[in-house]
Write a structure and sequence with these properties.
With 303 residues, the protein is α+β, with helices and mostly antiparallel strands. It has three domains: 63 residues, no CATH class; 97 residues, no CATH class; 117 residues, Dna Topoisomerase Vi A Subunit, Chain: A, domain 2, CATH 3.40.1360. It contains eleven helices and 14 strands. Helix 3 crosses helix 6 and helix 6 crosses helix 11. The longest helix is centred in the last third of the chain and has 15 residues. The relative contact order is 0.11.
């Protein structure tokens, strides 16, 4: 079956046998990007009654793909697929109820930053928390709509991600019938809402949400955004960067992959993207093997 991902606007071929109920298999978007031991985990679920699908790991949403009718004219040449995609959002009350730093990542931030710096992070990024002390990184688009929240657990001493699966607020809400089954998650950049209030500021783009919030303390005059994963660095998500100057800070070892993607994306959306190689120049062999990011380096320098 051909599926269309409403999160990244790409088409995928997925083998879904006939039958009833939910069918679970590997995700066509993220499974190949995961660690080898997790690549065969069935994180993608497809409802054969409603013809919609969702990945519990990366949060991508899917519908069945339909070609344009030959008699229809495509006004926008960049429009590849016909979808009835609607940008769904979550009620802001759920963000407000979650706000706080009683999380493991919150403990790590408190140990490394002043109260004023922590308030700066909260005012910009509206971090949430869960009962098990995970952090919620809320994805808010340039219009102020809450697309979803990414739930991640961290070690409160090292600030490193715990070896637990990532989950999403919209996935949990759908599971508890707080959102309709056909509610689809459309990806945006983490921190994207900051673009509207800072129209002239340079943009710094990183992979991880934690990296963005930490780097924003050290360099507060720039807008720090995160893709939430290298596989989520794509033209559709980056359209909001049109006309901006964007400095990309790849994790160690991933510079070439970011560069290749940046060349194509910047040309297609009309923005200037520059790859910072400063971290690669400063890092030791051990640090490169660990795949450290700009936030790790800034914390080491500040220690």
């Amino acid at each position: 079956m051909e599926l269309y991902c409403t999160t990244n606007n790409n088409k995928y071929e997925v083998n879904i046998p006939q039958g009833r109920g939910e069918y679970y298999t590997i995700c066509p978007v993220c499974s190949s990007q995961r660690k080898q031991k997790n690549q065969k985990k069935r994180c993608f679920g497809w409802s054969r009654e409603k013809n919609v699908g969702h990945c519990m790991n990366c949060g991508s949403s899917f519908v069945e793909f339909h070609e344009f009718n030959n008699s229809e004219k495509i006004k926008d040449k960049s429009e590849k697929f016909q979808t009835t995609q609607q940008i769904n959002s979550i009620n802001p009350k759920y963000l407000n109820l979650s706000l706080g730093l009683n999380s493991n990542l919150g403990d790590f931030l408190k140990a490394n930053f002043t109260q004023e710096e922590i308030e700066q992070i909260m005012n910009k990024y509206h971090l949430g928390m869960t009962k098990d002390r995970s952090v919620i990184f809320w994805y808010i688009d340039i219009q102020g709509k809450i697309r979803s929240g990414k739930i991640i657990q961290y070690d409160n001493e090292t600030g490193k991600r715990a070896k637990l699966n990532i989950s999403w607020v919209h996935s949990k809400m759908k599971k508890h019938n707080q959102l309709p089954e056909d509610w689809n998650f459309t990806r945006c950049l983490f921190g994207e809402h900051l673009l509207k209030t800072n129209p002239n500021a340079n943009v710094c783009l990183v992979e991880g949400e934690k990296t963005a919030i930490i780097a924003s303390v050290f360099m507060p005059n720039e807008i720090w955004l995160a893709t939430g994963g290298l596989n989520m660095f794509n033209e559709n998500v980056c359209k909001v960067l049109k006309g901006r100057k964007v400095i990309i800070f790849p994790d160690l070892g991933a510079t070439q992959m970011w560069r290749e993607k940046a060349i194509e994306i910047s040309q297609n959306i009309g923005c200037k993207m520059v790859i910072s190689e400063k971290l690669e120049e400063l890092a030791t062999k051990e640090q490169k093997a660990q795949g450290l990011d700009i936030a790790d380096y800034l914390l080491m320098v500040n220690d």
